[in-house]
Amino acid sequence: MPLIRPLSRLVALLIAAAAATPALAEAPEWAMQPAESALTFTATQSGSPIEGRFEEFEAAIRFDPEKPEAGSVTVEIVMASATTDSADRDATIKSAALFNVADHPSATFVADRFERGEGENAYAAPGTLTLRGVSKPATLPFTLVIEGEGAGATARAQGGLAIDRLDYGVGQGDWEDTSLVANRVEIAIDITAVRQ
Amino acid sequence: MTRSDSHAPVRRYDGVAQALHWSMAALIVGNFALALYMLEQPPVPSTIELFNLHKSLGLLALALAVLRLLWRATHPAPAIPDDHPAWERKAAAASHHLLYLLIFLQPLSGLALALASEFPTTIFGLFNLPSPTGPNETLKSVAGAVHWWGQWALAGLVALHVAAALRHHFLLRNDILKRMLPGA
Q1: Which of A47, A50, A180 sits opposite B45 (nearest CB)?
Q2: ipTM of the predicted structure?
Q3: Residue of B74, B123, B120, B6 whose CA lies nearest to A84
């Protein structure tokens, strides 16, 4: 009987610790600043670069530069916000054969950890890119510059990756042909976020 | 010896002038038909290839127009025979001047439209033309309007030109058309 009280205390302590641990281990949250962030892509048509951008996207970021593996990021991209500054081409890009925004209104990039890259300020987000309903592993390397400390610190992440559009089904029917529009598409991010 | 050694008046267009005339005729008719066709097609890669072909043929037409003007400047056209009334001479001179203007204006406005657009201007898939302006909405709409009206002006003038040639050949039964035909 004398054992019960200490034991129950220990159990209570363990439960409290278990409940508290995730919150303590979670990396700090960073709020993306839409006005200072850009998500762009470069396709190639007839050998010339075609620049485009997504005007609406959100990123939920948790990041600790000391413990990148504890971080995570989820980027949600509104596919209908894509523009290449050409009304005709934008309409075509969003059509069923390409982005198919009617059936797949958003694309996501999700990584449940970060890792250090080679070189100063170099990191990578190994994650999954879901585009036009197709999910594939994709790693986004980026450099990160943080100004300030603690809450209110500003971080700027710049990086990019290349994908083959046909891997995600971006190009059905006639658009599977890569002689006019190349398969390879470069995606670049330039995201500014403020630590909460 | 060649005819140029004699001082007899030139009665026919020479071979180079004829080749330039008929290749230009084929390009104008062909590219006009291509334009009407491509504008009706859905936005798929093969349609974009048609636009690229249209631009390529247009640039070729511009090159031929330059050659033609140079050739014409150095090799005078045969004079219109004296038996033609004054109004016909005036009409012929006016319509030919307009034709010359349009064979430059049409490819040039098309070129400006292409270079001001957001699409690469690729020539027969061999090379891309650099754009000095980059995408430019104002230039695009002005060049587009000139190119659109220009196509109908050129189509109308070509129809008049053909009708006049056929009138000379079949109704008046003179040698005006034959001057531009090989052999004969």
Answers
A1: A180
A2: 0.74
A3: B120
